[in-house]
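User: Show me a protein chain along with its predicted structure.
Assistant: Here is one chain, sequence first, then C-alpha cells.
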Amino acid sequence: MKFKLPFTTQLSSLLLASAIGALSTLSSFSTFAGSSHQFSLSIPTLEGGATIDGQLDEVQWQNAAIAELKYETSPGENIVAPVGTTAKIFSTGESLFISFVASDPDSSIDDDIIRANLNDRDDTWGDDLVGIKLDTFNDSRLAYQFFVNPYGVQTDSIENELTGDESDAWDGIWYTSARKTAQGYQVEIELPLRLFNFDSQLSQQTWGVEFIRFYPRDQVRRLSTHQIDRNNSCQLCQLGTATGLEGLKPSQDLQLTPSLVFNRNSQRDAEPGADWDNDNSVEPGLDIRWGITPSTLLSATINPDFSQVEADAGQLDINSTFALFYPEKRAFFLDNKDYFDTQLQLLHTRNIVSPDYGLKLTSKVDNHTFAVMASNDTKTNFLVPGNLSSDIASLDEESINLAGRYRADINDELSIGTLVTAKRSEQYHNYLASGDLKYQPTPQDTFTAQYVFSATQYPDELYREFCSGSDCLPDSNCELSDCGINERVLRTKRDDELQDSFYHLKYKHERRSWYAFTQYESAGDDFRADLGFISKVDVNKLVAGGGYTWYPQDSSISRVELGGDWDISHNQAGELLEQELEAKVEFEGSMQSYTAFGIVTRERVGRRHDSSQLAIDGNTQLFDETKGWGYSKIIPSRALTLDLDLSYGDNIDFANDQLGTELFVNPGVEWKLSDSVSLDVSHIYRSLDVDDGRLFTANLSDLRLNWHINLRNFIRISSIYTHIERDPSLYLYGSPDAKEQQLGNEVLYGYKLNPQSVFYLGYSDGLNRDDEIDALTRTEQTYFMKLSYAWLL
C-alpha cells in the first residue's frame, strides 16, 4: 500500500519550507544583471516632454542622452554595424522619451527598400524595426521590449529569463510616431512610467538597457549598442545600464476600462428546415487596473467580455489521442502573466472558460516577487490526462479558481519559488503545490528543478462522460471492437481523493559552438494539474541531447547546426511506452532563409487491446516507426514570405491499432499586396495509407485577408475550411463518416485607439457537412459589436 500524507499537511510543509527560505533572504542580496562594462548612459530628467509626431524638433532632444548602435550581433558576431543608428533618451519624471534616427544609404522616401507595413500591433517581425529592452529591476529575470516600424506600428513583449520565453501577449499603452526620410527613417516614442514595475524607493534608478535595430535585407541583421557574448547563455545578464531617473515618485496609476458588448447568436440543427434558436445579449463590463505602487499592480474585471476577436489557427484533429492546445489571448489573464510562470505549465488560464469576475495582484519587493489571482467560472472545465490519451472534462457547475506564486532571487545565480493553485466546485476539487529552483553557477551551465504535489477529487458520475457506450459495458475482458470503458474512464472512476507528485530535473551546458542537455520528468499515476496543461501522467521520461553550431564567414549561409536527442518513456510500473532517437540539421542564410530537416526513429506502443485495464505489457503492440521531416522558410522579396513544413514515414493508425504510412504537407504563403493589404494562406494535407488502401485524407485551408486602412482602422476577412475523407471499410473497430466538412468564416471591422480602447463590428458563421447532410449547411451565425475605452486617471 502506498502511504500518502494528507494534502493539507504536505501543502503546509511545502509552504513552510518556502517561507523559511524567504525569511532567510530578507536581509536582501544584491542581484545585478546589466553591467556598465557592456554599455552605460545616464538618462537626464528634463522639464517638458516631446510632441510625438516623428519630427524630433523639440529642444529637449538636444539635451537628451545619446547612444550609437555600433555593433552587429547577428548574424555577424560583434562586427561593425553596416548602417548608422542613433538613439536618444530623456525622462520627464512621468514618461521616458526615446528617439531613433535609422540611416540607410540605399533608401529614399519613395523607394521600397525599407521594409515596413501597416500591420496589426505585435505583427511587425520581418519589418525594419528599432526599439529598446529594459530590465527595470536590473536583476536579469524579466525585461520589457518595445519595437516600432517605420510606419509607427508597435510591438511590445516580455522576455522571461526563467522560462527562456518571449511573450508578445502583454499589451501596454504607449505612444509612437515614425516617418521615412531621404536618409532612412526616424521614430519618436513615449513610454509612460506607469507601464513599468520598478523600485520607487531608490533615489536613483539603475536599469538594464539595450537599444536594438533589426535591419532586414538579404539577411536580418541585429544591431546593438554593445557586444553579445555567444558563450553566455543568459541574454538578460548582458544588458548595459541606464542610470539617472532621479527622484522618480509613484504617480497615480488608475486605469478604468468600461466595455459594452452586443451579441446576437443563432444556432440550429443541420437537418433541412430546422428552426434557428436565437439568443440576443447586451453585456456591460468593467476592467480596473490600479498601480498601487510602481512595483505593485492590482487588476480586476467584472462581467468581462472574453470573446475572441481573432479566430484560433485551424488544427486538424484526426488520428490523435491527446487534447489539442490553444493559447491564451485574453487581456486580463495576460497582464503580468509572467509572474506566475514556472518551468512547467501549471497555470493555463484558458481552462477558465466563462468567468463573472476576476482579481489579480502582482508585486515585486527587493528580490521577492509575489502574484495572486482569483476568478470564478460559470463552467468547470479541466483536462483528464493519461499516458496514451487525454481529453477535456466539463461540469455544469460554477467553480472557484485560485493561483498564487512567490519567487525569491537569492543572488545572480539562484532563484527559488513556489506556486499553488486551486480549482473547486460543489462536487470536485483540484489542489496543487509546487516548489522550483533555477541555478546558473556559470554563464554556460543552468540547472532547473521542480517538485509538484496535487490532490484531486472527481464527482462520482464524471467517468460516464467518457464511456465508449451508453452504459459503460462491457467493463472487463474487453476487446478493441467491443469495450465500454477506456483510459479516461479508468482515471476518473475513483471514489477516493487522488494524491500524487510530478518531478522535473534539467541540466544544460551551452557555449558559442556547442550545447548539451539532459532532462528527467516523472508524473505519478494520480497527479493532476487542472488549472494547467499537463496532458500526460503515469509516465517518466528521460531525454539527452546536444548539438554543434558553425558560423561560416563570407558565405550565403550564416549558421549551421547539427543536433539531436534520445529519449525513453515508461509508465510508473516500468513498462516501455516509447523510445526515440532524432537527428537534425539547421541552416540560416540569404533571403532571410531558415531550413531544417531530420530523421526520427522510434519504438512506440499503440492502443490498449483490453482498455478495461491500464497495463501496457501484454496489452499493447510495440510498433517501429521511421519518419523524415523538413521545414523551410524564405523571404525572397519584401512582399512575399514562403514556408513549407512536411514529413513522410511510419505512423500508428490509432483507430485500428496498426502501422500506416503518413504524408504531411503544410505550405504557407504571406503576400503583401501593398504596405497596407496582406493575404495569408496556409494549407494542411495529411493522408494515411494502410495495407489495404488509403485510410483517410484530410485537408485544412486557412485564409486571412487583412486591410489596414491606417494605423487605427482595419478590416479582416478570414475563412477556415476542413475536409476529411475516410474509407469506412478499412476501419476495423468502428464505422466513421466517409465525409466530413466544416467551414468557419469571419468578417471584422476594427478601430483600435490603443489595446484597450477599441470598437469592433463583426459577423461570423459556421457550416457543417457529414454523411447525413448532402451539402455544407449553416448551423451557427453571430453578429457582434464591442465598444471599450481606457480612462487613464
